[in-house]
Amino acid sequence: MVQVLVRLLPPLGLTMVLSITALAIATPLGLALGALRAELSDRHPAARAIDAWVFFVRGTPILIQIFAIYFLLPKLGLQPPLFVMGVGALVLNSAGYQIEIGRAAVKSVPKGQWEAALALGFDRQATLRQFILPQAARRMVGPMMNELSQLIKASSVLSVITLFELHKAAEAISSANLRFSEVIVVEGFLYFVFIFGISLIASALERRLSASGALAGAGSFAR
Amino acid sequence: MIFDWVAFFEYFPRLIRAAGVTLQVSLLSLGLACLLAPLLALARLLGPKPLRSMAQGMIEVVRGLPPLVIIAFAYFALPKVGVVLSGFWCGVLALGLVGAVYAAEIIRSAIESLGCGQLEAALALGFARWRAVLEILLPQALRRILPPLTNEFANLIKASSLLSVISVHEISQVGQSLIFETFVVIEILVQMAILYLIIIGSVTILSRRLERGLGA
Fold it and tell me: What is the residue range of A10's domain?
């Protein structure tokens, strides 16, 4: 049991690095595109492109998205290392969901906030940056943290492209020593600790933000 | 890179048959989830203390694990305790459990979102606690439950793609083996995506209809 645990620690590290790298890229990308999408009219070509991305990501399993990257990139003459493909697939997936989070959060800020800021003589961009986004940011924290634990769970699917993250490593170990239940219990324990830890941090963060209104002060977040 | 229509139509029938398996697995696990979820939710809300913490523990654990791990558990660990199921039924069991846990949280939060006034009023009128929940709270909560539940169903369909690792012949598994057999990549990937988009798209449309119909 302990032996298995020790052998699974480095792959757990890879799972962590994969999901945190992907999150670090997908969050700014997704939220920026989401805020942009909230601003654009439905007919705008950029809006259509963003909608198509979201439609594809939400309408297909992540397995298909991973296959798409794994099989299509070589067809296009690109052969990036597996790690890059894995992060790419997670970013493709997660950013798609985060666009929706960002868009919904920006849309959920009451219209009066827009009108007040515009009436005070701010232009649209400054209004968005200094008034709307700080308020939207608070509403995003909950769904974002959810998205992080979804992302960690999704990283297990990268095992199908032989990326040696936690699930792939557990699979390899158990098919070598044939002690399936033991290895799966250890693997599950590691995933659970990681994801449960994240969700504890998430709820603490959420409570603090809603209590102190740290991000609510206009401008303090944007600059 | 040219799109090969001949290959496209040559392999399409096999993938359509696989889509049938995807639908079967998803519907069966949805059925299982719909049976288990209310029990879990009620155990969490109404059950005596030990039952309540058991239900909560189960929900936390299943939500904290990737579905892939749960599927692997059903397939590799259950035979060790003497339960031998085919890949198909392992998949139904695993997905049903995952779906039930998420649905139980949806039901619980919908009932809790009604506010305590409803429950207090029912109790004041002399309803027993369980009757108040079943006859007063649950029907009201149903309007809030259905839209997120259809969402959960779409997630279940997407998760069914993971059953390819335990060799259930659904869309992803068949598509993947076709790709390795024929090296026809783009056409098959497009087919897989189209089939999923059709299935999940129709669930999404259904969900929007329901939302509008219920006036939630």
Answer: 2-212
